[in-house]
Amino acid sequence: MKIAVGCDHAGFAIKNAVIEHIKKKGLEYTDVGTYSSNSCHYPVYASAVCEKILSGECELGILICGTGIGMSIAANKHKGIRAACCSDTFSARLTREHNDANVLCFGERVVGIGLALDLVDAFLDAEYMNSGNHPVRVKMLSEIEEGTFTSK
Ligand code: RB5
After folding, report:
1. pTM for the full model?
2. Looking at domain 2-146, which CATH architecture does it have?
3. Which of 7, 50, 65, 105 is the catalytic position?
4. Quick one: pLDDT band at residue 11, thresholds 50, 70, 90?
């Protein structure tokens, strides 16, 4: 499994630790930047990670900014991306299992390094439960994106 990893300047300090952790788990990764703590724009890196997933090069993505929120908003603008901003391991696991989330976002200014790596483990070690009502609901998410969903 190959993981796309990206951050802005406010997530830069934690990104290398996340990458080292991914390597220790025996997974492949691609680092789309940013590569310094110079101020930059989170939509650029959110889009770079999403493009890796949508092209099929990577299966899952991890995005880090100050809060994780800007990254998740930007990522969720991409059709086919289900990004979840998490600061607890229960949500990080369940968003893979129930929502088939393909991008985990978190905030360096919100979580410490220890929790960040636990979030990564919870997300990457979980598997989508592709049965029962979960695929029905995930399909509805796609229909919302396509403009074909109606709540009536
Ligand atoms: C950068 O200051 C900060 O706004 C950004 O990293 C992120 O938290 C936005 O959601």
Report:
1. 0.98
2. 3-Layer(aba) Sandwich (3.40)
3. 65
4. very high
